[in-house]
Automatic annotation (TrEMBL):
Pfam families, A to Z: SAICAR_synt
EC primary class: ligase
Annotated gene: purC
Protein name (Swiss-Prot/TrEMBL): Phosphoribosylaminoimidazole-succinocarboxamide synthase
Organism encoding this protein: Pseudobowmanella zhangzhouensis
Keywords: ATP-binding, Ligase, Nucleotide-binding, Purine biosynthesis
Length: 236
C-alpha cells in the first residue's frame, strides 16, 4: 500500500490518499486540542495510544456486527481505512450527565440517565458544533431519514457493546460521540473511538480517564489513556 498526498489535516489526525481510490491512511498525531482548537499541545505517545486503542475498539465492534471503516493497523500511528463519504452529523449517546448537558440543563454531573439520551450535532468547528435535530439534518440535506435511523440504531448497538466492555474493565462509559459515512451505499462507523471522543470514569474512584483531564488541566492525560488501554487488554 503506497501512501500518497495529504487529503485532510484535522486537529489530531491527518488523512492521506493511497494508490487504491477506495482506501485511505489515517495518521494519529500527538496533537491534543480543546475548546475548538483554541488550546493545542503536543503530548508524547498520544498518537500511538489512540491509534492502537481505536483499532482495538473498532475490531470489537466489527466482531459484534457493526460495520466500520477500519481495514488494518499499519504502524504505531497509522491505520488503513475505507474512504467514506462522511455524513456531517455527530451522534452522541449519554449514559451519565456530564459536559455540555450539565451546562445546558443545570443537572448534576454524574446523574444516571435512564434510558440513555441520544443527540445530534452538526460537525462544524466555525459554528462550534451546534446541536441539531433530525428535521434539520433532513431539511438541509445532511442525511436522509433512513440514514439517520440506521445511524441511531448503530449508535445504540455500540453502547450495548462498549458499556459492557468498559464495565468489565472497572470503567463507566459516561458518553461518547460517533461519526458515520457511506461506503458502497452502506452506513459505516468512521473517524475514531478513543478517550479523545468519549468520557470514561473509574467505577470506584470516579476519576476521569479521558480528554477531560486535558480540558480541565488535571494532568496525566496520556497516562490515563494508557491505564484504560491496559485494563482493556490493548497491546501498546
Amino acid at each position: 500500500m503506497e501512501k500518497r498526498a495529504e487529503l485532510y489535516r484535522g486537529k489530531a489526525k491527518t488523512v492521506f490518499t493511497t494508490d487504491d481510490p477506495n482506501l485511505l491512511i489515517l495518521q494519529f498525531r500527538n496533537d491534543t486540542s480543546a475548546f475548538d482548537g483554541e488550546r493545542i499541545e503536543q503530548l508524547a505517545r498520544k498518537g500511538m495510544v489512540n491509534n492502537k486503542f481505536n483499532h482495538f475498539i473498532m475490531t470489537k465492534l466489527q466482531e459484534a456486527g457493526i460495520p466500520t471503516q477500519l481495514e488494518a493497523l499499519l504502524s504505531d500511528t497509522e491505520s488503513l481505512v475505507k474512504k467514506l463519504e462522511m455524513i456531517p452529523v455527530e451522534c452522541v449517546v449519554r449514559n451519565r450527565a456530564a459536559g455540555s448537558l450539565v451546562r445546558r440543563l443545570g443537572v448534576q454531573e454524574g446523574m444516571t440517565l435512564n434510558p440513555p439520551t441520544f443527540e445530534l450535532f452538526l460537525k462544524n468547528d466555525a459554528l462550534h458544533d451546534p446541536m441539531v435535530n433530525e428535521s434539520h439534518a433532513i431539511a438541509f440535506g445532511w442525511a436522509t431519514e433512513a440514514q439517520l435511523a440506521q445511524m441511531k440504531t448503530l449508535t445504540f448497538k455500540v453502547n450495548q457493546v462498549l458499556t459492557q466492555l468498559f464495565d468489565a474493565a472497572g470503567l463507566i462509559l459516561v458518553d461518547y460521540k460517533l461519526e458515520f459515512g457511506v461506503f458502497n451505499g452502506e452506513i459505516m462507523l468512521g473517524d475514531e473511538f478513543s478517550p479523545d471522543g468519549c468520557r470514561l470514569w473509574d467505577k470506584e474512584t470516579m476519576q476521569k480517564m479521558d480528554k477531560d483531564r486535558f480540558r480541565q488541566g488535571l494532568g496525566g492525560v496520556v497516562e490515563a489513556y494508557e491505564e484504560v488501554a491496559n485494563r482493556l487488554g490493548v497491546q501498546l
